[in-house]
Amino acid sequence: DGYYATINLQQPFEYGGNTYSQLNLSMDGYVAFFVPYIDRNAIKNIRKNIIAPLWTDLDANDGGKWTYQQATNGSLIAQANNEINKMFPDDYFSACWVFVSTWDEVP
Question: NIDO domain: which residues (predicted)?
Fold first, then answer.
């Protein structure tokens, strides 16, 4: 494992005070805005611009699927807006871009 894919974004993304046009999607469950370290000492990635909802040691070579999609309009945007507005009913949210990554049945 330790794999990542560099993905060009359909729209610039602001995060951590910076604007990005690409990201590095790691097999290990996180999005990095830098080239991630691939060695076993992943702690080196801390204190950098990273979104890590599922940071763990995953390996799709043993099965499962690792996919992503992004959208600037259509059903994915509508679903994101609906879900976020449902969770925060006192605020209005309207996404102009979404990025969704899925690790499906990856051991």
Answer: 53-107
